[in-house]
Amino acid sequence: MTTPRLNAGRFVPAVVRQSHGLQRFMLLLGFGIVAVFVFVAVFAPWIAPYGFNDDRSGGVLFGTQVGPSADHWFGTTVGGTDVLSRVIYGTRTALEVIVLAVVLSALVGVPLGLISGYLGGWLDRILVLVMDALYAFPSLLLAIVVSIVLTGGSSGAFGGILAAAISITVVFVPQYFRVIRSATLSVKSEPYVDAAKVVGVRTPRILGKHIFSNVAQTLPVIGTLNASEAILTLAGLGFLGFGIEPSAAAEWGFDLNKALPDASNGIWWTSVFPGTAIVLIVLGVTLVGESLNDILNPLLRTRGADTTAADEAELAHEYEELEGDDVTTTSTGLVTPGSSNGEVRVAALSLTDLAVTFRTDAGGVHAVNGISFDVAPGEVVAVVGESGSGKSVSSRAVLGLLPASAEVTGSARLGDRELLGMTSSELQPIRGDQVSMVFQEPSTALNPVYTVGWQIIEGLQAHQKISKKDARARAVELLDLVGMPDPERRVDYYPHQLSGGQKQRVVIAMAIACDPDVIIADEPTTALDVTVQAAILELLLSLRDRLGTAIVLITHNMGVVADMADRVVVMYRGNIVEQAPAGQLFAAPRHPYTRALLDAVPHLGRENGPGLVDDNELVLKVDDLVVEFPGGLGQPAFRAVDHVSLEVRKGEVLGLVGESGSGKSTIGRATVGLQQPTSGTIHVSGNQVSGLSDRQLRPLRSRFGFVFQDPASSLNPRMSIGQCIAEPLHVQTDMTQAQIDAKVASLLDSVELGGSYAERFPHELSGGQRQRVSLARALSLDPDLLIADEPTSALDVSVQARVLELFTELQQRLQFACLFISHDLAVVDTLANRVAVMQHGRLVEIGPRAQVLANPTEEYTRRLIAAVPVPDPEEQARRRAGRGRMLTDIS
């Protein structure tokens, strides 16, 4: 066995702890400086030894200054005034102007930014034009112009300070407006805002509770930065003679102006002390600003556990027998797949006692606990397990892609070379050349500002001496190899111009560009439709066969494992609990966790789904629905839904299936008024809901609920779980707070969470728990119709199974009609009474579940069903052989 070697990253946690200590020190320093200045400003009349304009020359000829002394610690000015007193009173002036300017700027700029970003239209265009015009002026020049206009009507200390604050406010308003508007444009498209619209929340509450609360975290930072700028702007105005009237208040900029002639005469104190005050207060405010966002952010609040721990806690009661049940196997040699003579080959990649710990101030989080497995050349080893099991962490440790807070021990050998302990410069020639990685989300793995060809060429030129012309030709060849349509043209496409499946093919092309020995594929098909997924899997297998590449497949999709893997490594809580050949593991799993994982996987064709409910009353009627989106400049409109008609009855689940872009979600959004139809009608419980304004639709919104795909983004992160569930009750009912609280507790009990969860925030719950909360919110008004848009696609299989079981129990008990939108045919087979199949906006087939999924009449439906991987290696091998090359043209 290889002796465990310590990664260089082991010594980083001490540096991290020093960094955290430095951050705390800087925070305390900033607050300390600001606190001193605030104290001085508040108690200026008692602290200052003299008045800020008192003449202390004692009859001495004007122009004679006194240096620092016992009577005048900071000396006196040319006018005989005490410098220390002027600095102290100047602090009060500065803070008064800062507070007024920042508050007035926020009061004007923030509401304008919220309204402009949320409502859009002509009002947005006008406000943007005005704010851009103001922003184009140099800030100091604009403040001077406003000051000239205002000071003619101001008098006295307050009038001078207010005029100065307003002068600076005009400069700051466009900054608040631009930042808040930009944040609003981003937040208003979040699912939790749509969730608020679905239940009829009015615009003022959406702006305040859902948008402002989620953009307000930028305000402390903007305010402190503006406070620093306000000090400098005020000093600039005073220095140039456009500031506060000298007889009204002491001001540091004015004092610096008067100190200019002194500098050439060796009189330093009249400028140094006001200048130092400016520097110190700017420093203190800036240090505070850099820390306030973290301090005021409730998303950083924890209860001693993160969502990974919540997932584990949710699973632990089912797998108590895991503790002490060690069936881990460790191999010292591997049998080549397909070999009949038992030939032992050297592993392409070998992990031995690999452990990963993330150091935190509170201790350490053990993500991987001494795992060992090998992968041979030409072998596909699947590493499976649920979120938080350590699958991705272990693979990233091999390539040195973990953060600095990670401590890695053990061994990771590529052939006969040890990877752990290598520096980044030593790993650079290995990454992408000998070991490459296919990341889970291609949209984030590809740089949006460069063409896909440029990104492939970059990797080629990093490892090979190749001309740009030859590299481009190789990029085209690679795109053709991975099945990209028209690769000569699409090599110049940007990522946003490609579909999800095409982007994943680009990522694979980058991974195989240098013919690596090992490919680590981290959930390569999770976000893809079944047909595209099937094509990607076929591609990876063909690469394995042609290049002899070893593949480490990280996934929680057991159907994909059955389709591809030679051997399977099962991980749970950072440990390997079982590893075996794929056929053996699926046929006779040894560990209870493996058995539970396989039992949770829905199997298309083996589910005993519900029958028909044709006699029940009609709840949803969609008649000849058309939805079009305007095209780009010179482009025709895009028809997302093309003359679709369907019905859903009380107590019925209609499964709406199809690939991405088929129009499924658009129908769901149109049903609840989130998207207006171009033509056609939609009726819910006999009431027409299509074509109505938000005001007209609001009384009808209690008739339907909506469960969104991503449970994390569909819950407002700044509202507690109780507040999220209670919001529909506040908007649509006249219930008292006590009645609402009781209803929330009852709903939480109905989704098997309990009333104690009401005080928690979404980030403190696991994915499955968050989706249960979404379900409770959708059912809070006892709706007639529930729209569920891919509600389980983001969940692990066992969590998905529990959510589906709960959904089925609630649906049977409450008898709501449900439009269940999904691309997972196995899940639909479990739940649906009837199934509707969509392609390119059209409804191509609809009928009873058993008929559509077992004996489809349309070729497209048959192709969808053939592409679904099933958790059975033998059956999957037969399906793959029968499928042939049916999927090669799918992109």
Automatic annotation (TrEMBL):
Bilayer disposition of the protein: Multi-pass membrane protein; Peripheral membrane protein
Chief place of localization: membrane
GO molecular function: ATP binding
Regions crossing the membrane: 25-48, 97-119, 126-150, 156-177, 267-289
ABC transporter domain location: 349-598, 620-865
Nucleotide-binding is among the record's keywords: yes
Location in or out of the cell: Cell membrane; Membrane
Superkingdom, natural source: Bacteria
The keyword Mitochondrion is annotated on this UniProt entry: no
NCBIfam families assigned to the protein according to its UniProt record, in alphabetical order: PRK10419.1, PRK11308.1
The name this protein goes by in its record: Dipeptide ABC transporter ATP-binding protein
Natural source organism: Aeromicrobium wangtongii
Lineage: Bacteria, Bacillati, Actinomycetota, Actinomycetes, Propionibacteriales
